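Quick one: sequence plus flavin-adenine dinucleotide SMILES, need structure tokens.
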Amino acid sequence: MKQQVDVIIIGAGVVGLSLAAALKDSALSVLICDKQRPSSVVDLSVSHPRVSAITHASRDFLKAVGAWNLIASLRVSPYREMHVWDAKGGEIHFNAAEVARANLGFIIENAVLTAALMQVIDNATNITCQMPAIVESMITDEEGVCVTLANGQVFQAQCLVGADGANSFCRETFAFPLQETSYEHHAIVCDVKTTLSHENSAYQRFMQQGPLAFLPLQEAHHCSIVWSTVPEHAKEIMAMEEDFFRDYLSKALELRLGDVTAVGMRYSFPLTKRHARDYVKPHVALVGDACHTIHPLAGQGMNLGLMDAKALAKELLAAKAKQRHVGSLSTLRRYERARKEANQTMLLAMDGFKKLFASENDWVVKARGTGLDIVDKCPPLKRLFMLQAMD
Ligand SMILES: Cc1cc2nc3c(=O)[nH]c(=O)nc-3n(C[C@H](O)[C@H](O)[C@H](O)COP(=O)(O)OP(=O)(O)OC[C@H]3O[C@@H](n4cnc5c(N)ncnc54)[C@H](O)[C@@H]3O)c2cc1C
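Reply:
Sure thing.
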């Protein structure tokens, strides 16, 4: 027996969950499947290694879907200032007060985001979860899409959304062409304790091999780091003895937060740029990392995914309200048009930044240092950059 729903979301990461939450209590019936079930509770006695810098635009979306108050009641670290500098000279300092805001954004553990979104979904009347569940097959026909799970259940929907991350099974199954290039960087993440307080500031130092970021967590001496660097260097960092690594890391940030006194478990992620040529096909759409992955140097990957979810939810709800087929190509193309250019622009900007800061050419080194200093001393230009990055 086939069970009928309007929308099937494959993948309950932050992006898939936020899409489901945006469709909650609507006329659409929604099924969300994941191979594992994200927890709706989060252990706040420990820190969780994966964190994201969340923009004001993403915060507004999370508010609109009913998750923000839950997130804020768990653990959020707003950051007011950001110091960005080049190891070879040139620095820029952003302060939220310059754009009349209380903060520049929020550092949030991914586990907090998923727990809050799971709570929203658990309370929705129109959302069914199949988690954990293994998707055995997905087939489209003229009416929509048919998904068979390994537990024998079969679902028929008008629209299937692939929110299943960077190595998307949906993208592969429906043969979405993909542009894919290695960034030749690995990102190392871990949480650290420092002798000096971060004072709610984020720090990012650009070195020739890649940027090192210290992101402020709730406690004043506690940060999460993201160190993107070439694979050989990443391998060396991962193999360092803890004492040596603490000292090496303190110096890599030029002791701006004093000494690093403790480090958590280190995790390393190879970084790959991916962009699906098409975001949609009849009855199928891709969102989030399934659709694009981007260098974390500006902390934008999840923010782009949340904006995908927002745009797609808008189109699905509008189609349902007008009694149109929610998985028709014309409905889904509206989503693609709303998002592709913004995602492409961000991917290109990250390529540009990465190349600019990796260059050892004397002229480029001088020009980028001077450029940072000029923008730092030009409030209107600085405000423009800040508002672009925040909203
Ligand atoms: C080091 C690092 C730092 C980052 N920092 C930031 C930052 O500061 N700000 C920011 O905006 N972004 C950041 N990002 C990017 C951000 O982490 C990702 O863009 C975001 O997590 C993607 O979310 P997603 O829901 O699309 O995918 P995922 O989080 O990968 O979720 C995919 C889900 O699909 C499920 N799934 C996979 N395959 C299947 C299948 N076959 N069947 C069923 N379910 C399946 C998985 O179990 C998972 O739950 C960073 C990335 C890295 C690597």
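Residues 2-74+109-180+274-353 form a domain with the FAD/NAD(P)-binding domain fold (CATH 3.50.50.60). The longest strand covers residues 178-194.
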